[in-house]
Amino acid sequence: MNPTPKLLPLVSLAIVLFWLPPAEAAMVKASMSAARALQLLLEGNQRFITGHMEHPNESPDRRREVSKGQHPFAAVLSCSDSRVPPEVIFDRGLGDLFVVRVAGNVATDLTIESLDYSVKHLGVRVVFILGHTQCGAVTAAVKGHTEEGDVGPMLKELQPVVAESKGQAGDPVENAIRDNVLYVMNKVAISPEFQPMIKSGELKIMGGIYNLETGKIEMM
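Above: the chain sequence. Below: its structure as tokens.
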């Protein structure tokens, strides 16, 4: 007999739990400390800025190594913009970063759940929220809010930030981009999934804004 529709989610969950390897059934140990992970990110960005990139972990040996499993040292929530590829601007290679990309680098339930997976099952101890200058999604949200036009689900995620930044001195888009990073950092930080590890100091939620022209990440 086939499961009834109401039982399908429970059946699917049972299957997932049954097939999880023992090493992934509980919190895995950290890939490295949060301080060291952040240091690697910033050092990589500095190499990218100066044009002295090392392109680490891009060899055939590394490809074969990570085919057996992944142990990224940091997670990055970034915008989908083609000019902001995290692996490039942080000068990292295969298996180094767990990247979640969505227009406007917004923190939806799905993106938070993805980040949660990287922390609990892959050993990540730094979650980096990466915004960028001239963000098209934020620009559209500012314009949509100003004109009070019809906006889709993506822009609705940005509306609270746009409303909060409205009236601030300076460029409204730049203000909203900055406030959005801070808003997402806070939204991720207060998520129940991360609270215990953040309170203990084991997990760090960091953020910055990538400058399209200079390549530099301004830390928030």
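The chain has one domain: 25-219.
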